[in-house]
Write a sequence for this structure.
């Protein structure tokens, strides 16, 4: 009887184990539906996760974020303030201004590229082209021709030359756009810092003429620069000017 009960228990374990094994989902069912083998779809998922991890860098490279951050950095440096406004405030303001300026571009990329892909109406390759085209148009509208031509000349040895009517490679367009944004940001920063420099020079001249050698001129100039910036409604002028520079 003991042997019979042991055999019965083994048969029950085998049957239940087979049923449990049959209920384990296969790898094919866990991956999203798409063309190609499971290994190919796994590579697509890895590439997608990599792109998502680089999203902050992509936001800086292909949008107006760079110009805004550079301008705000010059503003804080011109005022003579080291930590006011805080970095988190300046970056957040730059982000929301970027969303405002890039709103039509984001909407077009979503409606023409990302949404059809999520609905399985287009392939990944076609979705990439449709998603990047709005950003390509934005960058071409604001890149400096000289910077673009510089990278075209530098890439002539390694990349095939684009024929007439063919799209410019993003590996050429993106660095040219970033340099153009940096240059424009520094130009705006010069205009921001210039009036504060004048105030510093006036205060320094007055301090020296009164013989106050031990008093740093920057300490006395700080409240005057803040008062000047507030009286001219500087935040409104600066933000509206930065936004209008893209329209």
């Amino acid at each position: 009887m003991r042997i019979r009960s042991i055999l019965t228990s083994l048969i029950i374990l085998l049957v239940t184990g087979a049923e449990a094994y049959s209920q384990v989902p296969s790898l094919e069912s866990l991956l999203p539906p798409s063309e190609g083998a499971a290994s190919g779809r796994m590579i697509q998922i890895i590439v997608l996760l990599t792109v998502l991890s680089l999203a902050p860098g992509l936001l800086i490279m292909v949008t107006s974020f760079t110009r805004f951050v550079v301008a705000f950095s010059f503003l804080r440096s011109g005022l003579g303030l080291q930590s006011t406004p805080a970095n988190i405030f300046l970056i957040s303001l730059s982000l929301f201004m970027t969303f405002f300026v890039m709103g039509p571009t984001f909407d077009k990329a979503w409606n023409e590229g990302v949404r059809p892909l999520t609905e399985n109406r287009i392939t990944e390759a076609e979705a990439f082209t449709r998603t990047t085209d709005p950003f390509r148009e934005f960058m071409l509208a604001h890149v400096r021709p000289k910077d673009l031509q510089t990278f075209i000349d530098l890439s002539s040895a390694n990349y095939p030359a684009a024929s007439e009517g063919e799209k410019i490679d993003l590996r050429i367009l993106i660095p040219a756009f970033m340099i153009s944004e940096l240059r424009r940001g520094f130009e705006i920063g010069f205009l921001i810092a210039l009036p504060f420099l004048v105030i510093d020079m006036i205060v320094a001249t007055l301090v020296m003429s009164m013989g106050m050698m031990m008093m740093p001129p920057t300490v006395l100039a700080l409240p005057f620069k803040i008062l000047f910036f507030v009286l001219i409604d500087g935040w409104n002028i600066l933000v509206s000017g930065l936004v209008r520079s893209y329209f």
